[in-house]
Structures are given as C-alpha cells and as structure tokens.
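Q: Give me a backbone?
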Amino acid sequence: MGYQVIISVLSGKGGTGKTTVAVNFAFSLAAKGGDGVLLLDADVEEPNAGLYLKPTLEEVVPVSVPVPEVAKERCNYCGICADFCQFNALAIIPGAILTFPELCHGCGGCSLVCPVEAIQEKPREIGRVEKGRADFLEIWQGCLNVGEAPPVPVTRKLKEGLPRQKGKIIIIDVPPGASCPVVEAIRGSDYAILVTEPTPFGRHDLEIAFQLVQQLGIPHGVILNRAGTEDRAEADNIIEELCSTYKVPILLKIPFSPHLAALGAKGVLFSKVIPYWQEQFSQILSKIKERCSCANS
C-alpha cells in the first residue's frame, strides 16, 4: 500500500456497534501492518475506544474557544451584539449586559458588530485532545468537558495535524447520528463505513446516513452487525434490500453472537482473540481499495 487513506466509521443511530467495528478494524490493520495505523475517537462527547485499547497517554492538548469579554465602561448597551448572536450568548437588560459563555460558539461576530469596540475575546477551555499508543496502534481522542455544548471545536482540534505520509491509514470513530459533529468528523474522508443492525430503526437511520455521505460525495459501504443466524436470516433482508436500492455494498456481516457480546462487555477485542475476525477485518481494506479513488493517488 503506497497511499494514505482516511476511513470514517459511522452509524445513523447509537448502539449499532460502531465503536466495536472501529477498534477491531484498527487493531486488525495495525496487527498486519505495524505502526502505520492511527485511530481517532471523534465521538468527543463520549469517547470510549480507549476502554477497549487502554492506551498510554503521551500528550494532552487543551481545546479552547474565544468568548466575549465586555468592557462595561465603554458599552452603551445598544443591543446590537445581542441581536446578532444566534445562540443567545449575550443579553441586554436595563443598565447591564449579560454574557453566557456556555452558549457561545466562538464565531467572533459580536466583537465585529460592536459600534464602540467594547467587546474583546478571551479563550475558554472546553475540552482536550489526548494522544497516545496501545502497542503498535496510535490513538488520538477528543474529550469535551462535561456540561459544554459545542463539540465541533474539539473535533476540529482533534483532526489538526493529521499525518499525511504515504502508507498511513487513519480510522475515525464518528459520533452517532447525522448532525453537525458527524459532518465535521467525516469531512475529508476518503471512504465511509456505515455500521447498522437488522431492525426497522437500523434501516431508517441507515437511510439517513446514506443520504449524508452521498451529499458529501464520500464512497461508502456497510457493515451489518448482529446479523441473523441461519434460523433468523430473514431479518437481514430489511438492510439488504435498502443497500440494493442505494447500490451500496455490504462489506461484512457480524453475526448476533452471545460470545462476541460477552467479549465486548469485558472490553476485549474479539479480533484479538479470534484470528478469523482479524482476517475478516483486514480484508475490508482490500474491498475499500477497489472502490476508493485514493488508491490511485
């Protein structure tokens, strides 16, 4: 492999096994290819890849956003800044201006529209980026502080300085859903793996995820988790029919298995203790290379 590739792992809903897929995929590729794999846990409101991989931290980078600081001796309480702010981070009451830093998204617009230049910005820490290693696997994770509202600045900081050397494989564990943090996490990806389950809810939210990655122009495939065994294989049809309609390939099926579930509950990578699954996850990269334009870059 002579190219660099960024692969996002996402799901339309929570609880489908997205992180399970991301960590097992990353571990399997790292086990095959040495230290050329970087896993990003971009689910910054609840990062949990480390529960499986137990990395040793090597660096912690604080994440801050600029918030308004008002010089009250200059403020004339005109209210232009409060009217401008779409997030209600400023409010004017008779003879006073109130700021709500937790609501601020750090756009800087209030300081630009202030006619008397009474507003300056100061940094406020909202989270951190942790970088470390677990054996031959490099791991970065974003952590939003409890009670903070905007996760996107942490995601942006997490993706700063991504290595661009040939042969590097970057796997991003994306937050669930299809909101702004998801878009920020998958932006710039070469391929997206969508993890789903054979249920009506899984089908509904997978279709939303299809529409998202197609609008962003990201090639994609599906991993069907908790797939039906022989006695309940008809349950898979609900996903297979949708994939056929959207012409999206199913890259892998992971069966509904109490044994695999028990390993996950203990924080054990099943690809680490069952060689068959390590091989199955490793083969996904070959399937991606066939469909990904980055293979020729």
Q: What stands out?
A: The radius of gyration is 22 Å.
